Amino acid sequence: MSDARPDQDDAQEARALEDVEANELARGVVRERAVWVEQAHGILLLRSHVVGFGMLSLSRRLTKPSSAGRRGKKGGRPTHGVMEVPENEHLQLTLEEAYYAAFEARLLYIFGIEDPAKAWLEEDCWAQFCSLDSNFPMAFAAYYKYRKAGWAPHSGLKYGADYVLYDHRHLMKTKAHHAHAPYCVRLVYRREDEADTTVLAESAPSLYGTLRVTHNVVKKLVLCLVVYPVSGGHLRSASDARSCISVRELMFRRFVPTKHLTPTWQELKKRQKIEERTIKKAQKYVPVAVFLKLQFVTERLCASTVGNNLKLQLAVLSQSFTEIPQKQPSMWKSLRTTQIHRLEAAD
Fold first, then answer.
1. Same domain, residue pair 54 and 162
2. Which intervals of the chain form a coiled coil (predicted)?
3. From CA 325, how far away is CA 247, in angstroms rounded?
4. Where are the alpha helices (DSSP H) in the chain?
5. Of 70, 80, 133, 318, which sits most exposed with the smallest number of CB within 10 A?
């Protein structure tokens, strides 16, 4: 067995070099606490979709250079006195992203900067990443959980968080190339013998800063509590990290008293007046066909078997749209008859 192990390692390294040279897989080089992918085919392979891996160094999407002139028009006069500098853009992967892309998704081979001709094996890569970052096993356990749950975690450095989560399954169905990430994830590490309140109290100031930033960009903040054993020396592989580390989430949000208190009678009356004024203004500017269609639909829904509360709401809504302008009544009458016939024919 001892003689077969070096031969197996050499075969894997040779296959890794052949795949990289054939442009089949991406090639990543470890630099400090990140993995850089500099080849164009590797960047396209890992970033071919928004659910991919990593973040571009210039923090922008892969787009073709524009042929616009000085005023933004195609074919316009180019600017003079400006020298074009080529943009050497590379893809940056976090350690957990690189490990998942290499040994779970099988899209990447990782090399060291000291020996760029020798690809790292799974055991060697785990040991090297743990030496670079002591929290790597915990971060990988959280990253792995979100990936398997259908989310695509990306770097949340812009928002003061660890990850931003994209809906992987929704994006794969719609084939979208840009989407909004609804959640920001902040990782909080805790030992088994520590209490949650102690850890949260220590990180409270930074959490409030992250919460304010995520609120401004219309995202929700999720606290990911990663509980690891007291003696972490036996976390020697990804399977050990997944089995020994527990991950659970808490939704963290600001408490605004004016939004959570029960409204008073005066506030409810004020809201009702505002709604009435809004409806009257809408009746003046929105086309009458919209109101007629809404009135007909509400009458149909009220006649069907729905709940009493919904019937009451629809009846009030229908009554609020019955006031039709009195100018040219014959035109409004014919328009209403035509609209109803169209809806009945569509049904």
1. no
2. none
3. 61
4. 4-21, 40-46, 95-103, 122-132, 136-148, 168-174, 196-202, 204-216, 238-244, 257-260, 265-285, 288-303, 308-320, 329-346
5. 80
Tokens found for residue 266:
């005066």
Name residue 223's beta-bridge partners.
Answer: 186, 250
What CA–CA distance (Å, rounded) separates 16 from 8? Answer: 12
Helix (H) or strand (E) holding 264: none
Q: Are residues 11 and 117 in the same domain?
A: yes
Distance in angstroms (rounded) separating the CA atoms of residues 294 and 281: 17
Q: Which of 149-163, 257-271, 296-310, 316-330 has the lowest mean pLDDT?
A: 316-330
Percent of the chain past pLDDT 90, that is, above it, reads: 22
In this prediction, residue 168 carries a pLDDT of 76
Q: The domain spanning residue 5 has which CATH number?
A: 3.40.1170.20
Q: Within a domain: residue 73?
A: no
* Residue pLDDT, tens place only, 31-51: 988 999 988 888 888 876 545
